[in-house]
Amino acid sequence: MNFSAKIFVLLCFCSQFLHSQSKEIRFLSGKDAEHTKEWDFWVSAGRKSGNWNKIQVPSHWEQQGFGSYNYGRDYVTYGRNFKFNDETGFYKYQFTVPNSWKRKTINIVFEGSMTDTEVKINGQLAGEIHQGAFYEFKYDISDKIQFGKENILEVKVSKMSANKSVNNAERLADYWILGGIFRPVYFEASPKEHISWTAIDAKADGTFRSEIHLKGINSANNIKVELFDAQNNWVGESQVQIQKGDTLKQIQFSLKNPKLWTAETPNLYKAKFTLNKNRKTIFQSEEKFGFRTIEIRKGDGIFINGTKVKMKGINRHVWWPETGRAVTENIDLLDVQLIKEMNMNAVRCSHYPPNKSFLKICDSLGLYVLDELAGWQKKYSTEVGKNLVREMVTRDANHPSIIFWSNGNEGGHNFDLDAEFAKYDLSNRPVIHAHHKPGNAFNGIDCNHYEDYYSTKKILEGENIYMPTEFLHAQDDGGGATSLADYWDLHWNSKKGAGGFLWAFVDEGLVRTDFNNQIDVNAINAPDGILGPHREKEGSFYAIREIYSPVKIDLKTLPKDFKGIIPVENRYHFTNLNQCQFEWKLVNFKTPFSSESGFDIIKTGKVEAPNIPPIEKGIINLNLPVGWKESEGLLLTATDAFGKEIYTWTWKLKSNDEISKKLSKSLIKEFPVSIVENDSLFILKSDEKEFAIGKKDGVLKSVVVDKKGKKMSFRNGPVFVNGTMELYSIKSFAEGTNQGIEANYKNGNKIIWKLNSQGILELNYEYSLSGDYQFAGVSFDEPENYVISAKWLGKGPYHVWKNRLQGQTYNVWQNLKNSSRTGQLPWIYPEFKGYFDDISWIQLDTAEGKITVGTKEEKMFVRLFDFYGIYGAEGYPKLPSGNISFLDAIPPLGTVLAFNINDKTETLGPESEANHLNGTFKRTLYFYFGLPDLGDENKQFTMPKENVLTD
């Protein structure tokens, strides 16, 4: 045997030896919902019932075409006499076990099965029936295995539990209730002498403690614990002697200056536990952990490593439309990345413990986790609950990301279980109760749900820390980021404000295998997400990203004397802004008559990151180059210490008046302008274009765009969206080469039309208002079914509300027409319809031609067609007249909950009040119908790109 072969054999032997001394895993099911195995299956009722078939495991049997569907609130919908589909599934699977396992302890592990689960090996019960869907449980089946022969696994799963409290806690809930073995099933084979599990407590001062639970100790006489850093460098160790029959040993030692774990600095270590007999390894296991200290300082706040933190959190159900609560590690990773992309730092695992992989990813990428025992609005019995607390905590206790345990939700708290968590959690994390009624603070933290802005202020003046575990319910397009800026500033600036958790992460849309795989959100019950079922991003996603940005920049428009200095606040808890990177771009925007959207980059530059400690304020000096004012836009991008973009802010450098004049200069052809009239109309003419204005109301009646008399359907405006339009006087006039019409109204409002020689129809209007209004401005009519797409220079690409203007950036955007309703099929985002912010010009491409509208004044909103924020018996809020509106004010949006469903959004804070208007409002609009001949000199109208600077 040559040298290489000897080395290979030695490595194989060492590998096999080490493997035999550690826990071996052999999957009986697939590893996740994407990688499944086929088992035999029989279901008692519903689709494909009464016959043996094949099923993929793990899965929900409904998603495999078996049984029937129920939403958890069906008992509310249909009344007390409603009975859930009480289906029972029977699984069979044949397996073999290697002879090498004969001297091992063999456990069969179920990571999650809905709901009551009875397990048999070769006809023998593995143990007591397990009750509770979301918890990992196992049975020692060492004495039931036939080695070297075929074995049979039989599993009976009852969708509804025989225990009423389990059904109350898990099944009578506001979410889809499903059945089946939905998480992996596998064997664990360990040496007879082994470590069954470990509990770790690693404090910020470097103190490491562990409780090591042992089984079968006969000859082992030593445990060694070694610590390794993230680069697998050994950093410390300790040992403890053991004796025959020991079941628990404790060990404690210290590490100097460990790198601490926080959501901003997710530093992980590894502990290797070795069970020895006279220096010979019998068994090894490993656990990842982090050094960090959690404190609840009553009347003050939540402290991590001695620093007060505030939760920018969201509620997350484990969910994927095709597979329900059976998911994959990639889905868990995607969700953590999306939560962090919103600049959040926390997640609540509502309303049950998540997959193990989700917690591992929270550890490694950095999120504070609230891990929750199920109990939607009713509680487990003490007998069942004790078992489930033990299973939950022993599985999850070593994750540094978990900051709190939650004992149930909204009344689903069994107080007898509060003390159970500490029995298995060596670090003794705080236990909280997720309330929905005031006066239920626990452990110094009030978690009351869905308080409005002003009741939140009152709670924050009380004795307890306030951390709502649900707030701003995001059904459809409501809640989420609407009014979040007010809430967040309230918590940020309050001593006892600890932040909170928005409801909720995704619309819980389920692919219905009984309805041709259509996605169902159960009407108004489940479209509660910031994202769609496949993680389609709603407008709130981007608004949250700006609101929760740890680099806080409030500069909405640049002052006239702007010299490149931008005020900034550091809203990190542990990170100095000098650990971030900043880059600016000077850009020129595409024109409405260009075939492209977006901008051309003129110059770029990097910024010296300012030295601003956490929670302090300072400035960023952009050091812009000479001539920067010649550009049209300024962008600033902040990137975090890990290279991830935090946010990009944009500012316009040219006024709308300058933009309009530039566009006007690009129209090189001129034609004589005339005016004719008949009994009912004034008709303004320029070349082939004609615009008819009604003599009785001053409103546009028709548009003709060519010599053949081709009409466009844009008409019936401007109509003032508030008040009446009783005409007082109307007349025509000439102004140089322009022709015009002036209409005055009895309430003092005024409209002036002008047509110039370039074919631009100018509209000047003014109106006066005094009071509170949902919206203000003017509207027109345009057949929605004629519209193909929209392109605009302004904020976008998502629509906005008065109390959710954040998250949209200034650019030239394009959007193909869609009929998406936020939170409903077909989840095509961004939505085409809605209110759009800070519009300089907008161009509609229609079946009849293009309509381009610009404005001279600043801060114009455009409303596109009919849409609503929240859908119920009626959509709300109400809309202006017409279906294309040019507005100076738009409404706020509330949430679906009762206290503001009737447009009482003012309870959500200052941003959510109606528009307080007092005075006269004036605006000039420019309309151009069709496409102009720009001529050769304008083919290079957009400034060319220059080389990127690297200063």
TrEMBL record:
Give a yes or no for keyword DNA repair in this entry: no
Q: Which superkingdom is the protein from? A: Bacteria
- The Glycoside hydrolase family 2 immunoglobulin-like beta-sandwich domain is annotated at 202-292
* A molecular-function term among this protein's GO annotations: hydrolase activity
Name all Glycoside hydrolase family 2 catalytic domain ranges.
Answer: 295-515
Task: Report the Pfam families cross-referenced here.
Answer: Glyco_hydro_2, Glyco_hydro_2_C, Glyco_hydro_2_N
State the needed cofactors, names only: Ca(2+)
Its Enzyme Commission number? Answer: 3.2.1.23
Q: Where is the Glycosyl hydrolases family 2 sugar binding domain positioned along the sequence?
A: 53-187
Query: Looking at the keywords, is Calcium present?
Result: yes
Q: How does it assemble?
A: Monomer.
Its protein name is Beta-galactosidase
Q: Which organism is it from?
A: Chryseobacterium shandongense
